[in-house]
Amino acid sequence: MKLTDNVLRSFRVAKVFRENSDKINCFDFSSNGETIISSSDDDSIVLYDCQEGKPKRTLYSKKYGVDLIRYTHAANTVVYSSNKIDDTIRYLSLHDNKYIRYFPGHTKRVTSLSMSPVDDTFISGSLDKTIRLWDLRSPNCQGLMHLQGKPVCSFDPEGLIFAAGINSEMVKLYDLRSFDKGPFATFKLQYDRTCEWTGLKFSNDGKLILLSTNGGALRILDAFKGVVLHSFGGYNNSKGVTLEASFTPDSLFVMIGSEDGKIHVWNAESGMKVALLDGKHTGPITCLQFNPKFMTFASACSNMAFWLPTIDD
């Protein structure tokens, strides 16, 4: 089944889970699309089975808190950042709920965490104005970049380069093998003083970069030329909330939630709005991602919602 405008417009909430007492700050689908793992401001980690449509397990990170949770390539393991006590990144085995390794180094809150799509490398960006490069097999930082401002960062889909959005006004592209030589491309964007960049993602085809903000606007850039192709607005975000925006897996559509519980979808090529979906969320939709393998997506406030299409186009 292919994603079309009509199929997207037909999505409805199939299930709502109320496992959390505070907002879900992040979630991540497993690469096979079968499970989803969430982190919440209530210090819990909840594992959901996407096929059965139910929560499987809840773990707690009471001491350090939990944010920016990401699956690694090994089955049943995740990395996440702390939001209490310190700014260490933790590598957890879900199987026995034990830490495998700690990654200390950042001195302020970690705001970006991106796992390489191809190996055990991951990168983190922090309010301490650094990006650090790590390997899951070693607690020592493998690379450190001092920046002129707060970063958001992400790997490209091939894991060969990473992009850093810096100070909400420029995007720099680095070759992973020679990042210490500096960026091979820098794109300067018009600075918007009304909002800060809160997320950076590549489309799966590697051609587009999506910049999300804590304001009421998103931008898509050409990943090769750095030109802004589209700016999307018209969704509610008056309180400066970090709202996650995502591409669909086919790279054709962009979606974001809003503070009033609605989801807005645009065509990434034409820039036209395709759908407005009502998730009946009780708070702002802080997290939103499409399943990488199945025709379903998830959205979250303090509740988690699974969506399914109601037509098969």
Automatic annotation (TrEMBL):
Keywords attached to this entry: Nucleus, Repeat, Transcription, Transcription regulation, Transcription termination, WD repeat
GO MF annotation terms: chromatin binding
GO biological process: DNA-templated transcription termination; lncRNA catabolic process; negative regulation of DNA-templated transcription, elongation; negative regulation of lncRNA transcription; nuclear RNA surveillance
PROSITE patterns: WD_REPEATS_1 (PS00678), WD_REPEATS_2 (PS50082), WD_REPEATS_REGION (PS50294)
WD repeat extents: 17-58, 103-138, 235-276
Subcellular compartments: Nucleus
GO CC term (a single one): Set1C/COMPASS complex
InterPro entries linked to this entry: Swd2/WDR82 (IPR037867), WD40/YVTN_repeat-like_dom_sf (IPR015943), WD40_PAC1 (IPR020472), WD40_repeat_CS (IPR019775), WD40_repeat_dom_sf (IPR036322), WD40_rpt (IPR001680)
Alphabetical list of SUPFAM superfamilies matching this protein: WD40 repeat-like
Gene3D superfamilies (UniProt xref): YVTN repeat-like/Quinoprotein amine dehydrogenase
Recorded family membership: Belongs to the WD repeat SWD2 family.
Protein name: WD repeat domain 82
Organism ancestry: Eukaryota, Metazoa, Chordata, Craniata, Vertebrata
